[in-house]
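Cross-posted from the bioinformatics board.
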Amino acid sequence: MKSKNYIKMLLKKEILILDGAMGTELQKRGLPTGISPELWCLSRPEVCAEIHRAYLAAGSQVIYTCTFGANRAKLNEYNRKDVRQINTSLASLARQVAGKETIVLGDIGPTGKFVEPFGETPFEEAVEIFKEQAAGLLAGGVDGFVIETMMDIQEARAALLAVKELGDYFTAVTITLEKDGRTLNGTDPITALITLQSLGADAVGCNCSAGPAEMIPWITQMKPYSKVPLVAKPNAGLPRITGEGHTFFDMDASTFTHYALLLAEAGANLIGGCCGTTPQHIKALRENIRDLPPRHPWCKSLGAVSSHRSSFVFSEHPALVVIGERINPTGKKELQNALKEESMSVIRNLAKEQEYQGANLLDVNVGMPGTDEKLLLRQAVLAVSQVTSCPLVIDSPNVEAIEQALRIYPGRALVNSISGERKKITELLPIVARYGAMFILLPITDEGVPRLLEERISVIKKVFNAARRFGFSKDDIVVDGLVMTVAAQQEAALETLKTIAWCRQKFHVKTVLGISNVSFGMPERKWINASFLAMARKEGLDMAIINPSSSEVMAIKKATDVLLGHDRGAIEYISTFSGGVAQKKEKGRGPIDLEERVREAIMEGDKEEIISALSELMKQGKNPKQIVDGLMIPAIVEVGDRYSRREFFLPQLLASAETMKKGLAYLEPYLLDAGVESKVKGTVVMATVQGDIHDIGKNIVALMLKNHGYQVVDLGKDVPTKKIIESIRNIKPHVVGLSALMTTTMVVMKEIIQTAREEGLTTPFLLGGAVVSPAYARSLNAYYAKDGVEAVKTVEKLIGKGKSHGGPEKKEAN
Amino acid sequence: MPHEVIYFDPLPLEELPEEAIFRRLKYHPHLTHLTPKGRADIRYKIESARALLALKGAVRRVKIRMLELGKIELETGETIRSVNLREFLDHCEEALLMAATAGHRITEEIGRLMERGEMAKASILDAAASETTDAALDWLMKYENQLLRREGRALMPTRFSPGYGDLGLENQHTFYQLLELKRLGLELSPRYVLIPEKSVTAITGIISSHGKVD
């Protein structure tokens, strides 16, 4: 067996050539569709051996076992339970062909099912599935593993942990990306690299899904963040479809090699081929790449965290990093109650709100008496991971809870915190190292909180030295400056600032402060918090655990970013605050604009503004009828015209309609007082036909008609024909509006109209809905409107010209 | 042996299809006047739909046999009638049935908003739910293509849904049964409407490798 160090040493000297496709080669040799390639190979080992031999002869230095789908989940589909034995046999076959010199990697592919929190498969079940397969591969004599074609970062993590828990073997992990450069559940190449290399992958890259040309930018993106060699195993171009409806890959060996050279230049260290590639592709690859020097990984260490779909590299963000502090039950009754019931909905909302408010990272702390923190922290991490892109800070004093959270977290986390306490160093530090997380170093000891800088320095150095033994570097650590409340120790704030300055200037590590602790017990805490943050920024503070909904603290963050030169061109600051000033100016307009304000409120759909403007007009004794007829109706008509010209779109049209409705409701008592009778322009009965449950279109039309002075009798959705006919007979409307969204329910319109005519009812029908066309309406001798605006115009024409019976005039055919 | 149904509960679609949602709301990139603040407000409302969506999906591969014009027989014994679909699947021996739903919560919220007269927000959530459900079907097709690629096969690029064209809505019953959609909490009305409203099924063909790989 080739050791991990041997393979790593080889990678320092040369670019390793992998093999090409197995699946498409098996198909050429008769593999039928719809059966397991692994089981087919087991019964025809000579075919599989022939493919391995062809790749070796072409120059592959590494071959993959033919075990891509040989996991329990896949083999179960073929009623095979002997997973371990199948893997051992296929690995032995590859080993036998490869001899002792060539590296054999045990191929582990996806189960095809997504792993929690992105799917139903429990994380530990996924780990066990892969462990079973990996154990079989090891027994067959593989040198290491390749976890490939992963479309779910969490499944890739489960497979990597499974392999690591069996021993220290060389393991490469490759993901498969869609055209948009992300996996199916949204992971980009840099994020995948940061997550997987920190968890212990020895090489990371991409395979399948794309040709070599598409893969170049992905490898290029990854290289600056790589601590490990990169893998590229592209398809022979993109699959094409023939006129007869078959797929094929058509990139020839020389074109493939042309792009593979560019992949090597971009920084790929292991290169091979996936679907559609052949021994000819690998031979050409080997001949052209043999003498190229490898581009080594760029980083020895990398201060970066990740979620499943985004990463945060600290050196790229000189502005203050905001760690949202609100997922913490201390002093929050609603969150406490939710946690007692093990409900995660409050936590999900807090996560989304903080992300929206500008948090870069989210602190997750669910510790409170009387609950199972181990269980809750795991659930909280899963819940938050589903709804946010922000990387997480896992915050707990409970070592076991942190371990569970790190195991399940689908990214690279920041752990809050490891102190100089004995238990933290001996128990927590190895766990954080095993899962590759970063951590916050808290300079306290079993004896308590050191008061002075010199004592804190001693603790910081002690913890850092212990961490170094586990492979941590300064990039992996953030020092907490230890904020104490000034209400108890006024000089403590200055000592904290000194700690920040020392970390920045002498020790060269990043720093963090839990800002709000400084003001505990003080009145008007926001001013102390904001001032303290500004002072700490001057000393070099990198991150703050704060409430991103606090406008004072976030304003100080943005202002100090400008003053310290971290917000280039003050772009962020200007975009945050310039809008506010403009809005305030607008709101400050004088009473002479009142009528214009009513018009604008309708045009802009501002429901608050219209009431304010109308109430002022009423105070001035204006005539309510003139306001309606002279201001509001022309405004809503203009909105309709703009919608027809597509200058407005649906939400704007509806916001205006809602504003109009609210304004009319406000004016109604004034109109009555003024003796203005409510005059209805006409009555329209509306219904979504039987069998159809879609009614938003019908409701929009109803709203528009009401705003234009029509009485609308809305019968609702899924309305039986009989009820519609009865309503026509009883209400005697001027028009009946029918809506249907489906072809099957559209035919009910015909039934209703026929029934009405048979019963002697001549009321005109107005039809609408996604599948209804003008031609269909004409065929039923009915009218058609494509939207609410057109419906109003049609009803106006019908009632205006006194046409309250029958259908549209038929045009004569040319 | 017939393939089993693969369920995605949840279906991990990451991005809401914002462009399609705006398009559904009749937004025109060159004609519609929308201020940056107005756009941010709409985006915020679209984003608020995310919390209400509970996307789920299901896929199942089935072998198919072309019968006379306009009839397709599934390996499970059912027959689908559609001239256009029969023509579309002409070269395929296997098809993929799929379903996606946005779940009950968003439909209920849209109903509540309409009752309160908040039609603008209701229309945005409605468009978000419809387009996201459709995007979930795109996601399911991408997922299946990932698996098929290793077998040298691929899905046809488009799909057919019951209720559109000449594929009658009554076929919804076949989809409902074969995908066992009850497991995803879906119901089928007597008129073949899926409940909750924002649910959709579809079928597409699986094409095989030409073998022209050299």
